[in-house]
Design goal:
Layout (H helix, E strand, L loop, with lengths): L4 H13 L2 E6 L5 H6 L5 E4 L3 H6 L3 H5 L4 E6 L7 H11 L3 E8 L2 H10 L4 E5 L5 H4 L4 H7 L3 H5 L3 H22 L6 H12 L4 E2 L2 H8 L3 H13 L3 E6 L13 E4 L2 H7 L5 H5 L4 H17 L7 E4 L5 E8 L2 E7 L9 H9 L2 E8 L5 E4 L2 E5 L3 H4 L3
Parallel strand pairs: 1-4, 1-5, 2-3, 3-4, 7-9, 11-12, 12-14
Antiparallel strand pairs: 6-8, 7-8, 9-10, 10-11, 13-14
């Protein structure tokens, strides 16, 4: 088992501050394993028929309990949220840790019922800190799902991801109340993987798929709401240049992306035409996690003349940026210089897969992905 010290420590901090803590994430990302590493007093798993039976009368089952109470797969009984509000307001000896598959409906229901009483922790796949610098390539090709990462062989990892995708589409999506045939969503998801790292053109995808723009947006909302894709919005500034105003899309887990593209090994990847896009998406996810901001606070910036920056955000009243390059030795390009000046970046990092850190300019640094936790960042 891989110990996830950072995630455990962050969850402990939240539990101390809030009566209800929610760990949200995709199925098999490690929510249950993480929860069981904490010291808890009672555990309800809503995939266990016995625990479901115990909660047929939830107030009778919960109101006399003391300490930390864990409820796993809470999205199966969303009617619990109003009761939890009553219990935490009236029972001083109780705290709740709830686990659930990420979905906008679940977040909405819990936030409405537990406003001011709940804090969310979004659990992603394994991080660079979890697996060690020497295993970055393995994490890149296999992705961050623990079972996929620790599989004995790449073939086993690939087979697990294929089954994961099938189960997600055939079981998890319907459980969220989404009635779309699994083969339709699978076909859409596979098609979407070919747009990984690119500007979204809803009309083009709709024509390719033979459906309306609105249906495309609906499918994307489903995959984004379950943390399967990232929709990166463009940053607008009035600098007298024509800016790209459509978002970019990424498959969040690199292993899932590679499975959708039928890439099984690092050798397959290194000769694939999606190599650069794969690196960009993989590095971007780990940079975002390292910075630690809400997903909605990240952007990209691009002009129609070709100047761009892959990742942009604001912090402490200043602008920051990252460019991703899969190359041996990134150089100072015209695009990087324009982005740095036009966006008035305090600092810009060029993240690449090498081993050496070096300066391209006073406020521009080439940085190995393996060093982001040491550098990071301001």
């Amino acid at each position: 088992m891989i110990e996830r010290k950072h995630d455990i420590n962050e969850v402990k901090k939240i539990i101390k501050l809030f009566p209800v803590t929610a760990i949200l994430g995709t199925r098999q990302c490690g929510k249950t394993t993480l929860a069981k590493e904490l010291v808890y007093d009672h555990y309800f798993d809503l995939e266990n028929p016995r625990d479901i039976a115990r909660l047929q009368n939830p107030q009778l089952a919960l109101e006399d309990l003391e300490g930390l109470i864990v409820i796993d797969e809470i999205q199966r009984i969303p009617d619990l949220f109003p009761l939890l509000r009553y219990l935490v307001d009236n029972k001083s000896g109780q705290k709740y840790l709830i686990l659930g598959s990420a979905s906008r409906d679940l977040v909405k229901q819990s936030s409405e019922s537990l406003a001011g009483r709940i804090s969310y922790y979004y659990l992603n796949g394994l991080s660079l800190n979890d697996i060690g610098k020497e295993n970055i390539k393995r994490l890149w090709i296999r992705g961050g799902f623990p079972i996929s990462f620790i599989a004995d062989t790449n073939e086993d990892s690939y087979l697990w991801k294929e089954n994961y995708i099938t189960t997600f589409l055939e079981r998890d999506i319907p459980q969220l109340g989404i009635n779309i045939p699994s083969y339709t969503l699978r076909r859409f998801w596979t098609m979407l993987s070919h747009f990984h790292g690119q500007i979204i053109n809803y009309s083009e995808i709709a024509r390719s798929f033979g459906i309306s723009d609105m249906t495309i947006r609906k499918y994307l909302e489903i995959l984004e709401g379950t943390f399967m894709v990232r929709i990166l919005q463009p940053w607008y500034v009035n600098i007298g240049k024509r800016l790209v105003k459509r978002p970019k899309i990424y498959i969040k887990d690199s292993g899932i992306f590679h499975s959708l593209m039928s890439i099984e090994t690092i050798e397959n990847l290194l000769s694939h035409n999606k190599l650069g896009a794969s690196w960009e998406g993989f590095a971007l996810e780990h940079i975002c996690r390292s910075i630690g901001k809400n997903d909605r606070e990240y952007y990209f910036w691009s002009t129609y003349t070709g100047a761009e920056i892959d990742l942009f955000w604001q912090n402490k009243g200043k602008n920051w940026g990252v460019e991703f390059k899969y190359t041996d030795a990134p150089k100072l390009t015209k695009s990087i210089k324009i982005a740095s000046l036009d966006l008035k970046l305090e600092h810009l990092w060029v993240v690449y897969p090498g081993n050496e850190k070096y300066r391209l300019a006073e406020n521009i640094t080439v940085l190995p992905l393996a060093m982001i936790e040491e550098e990071w960042m301001y």
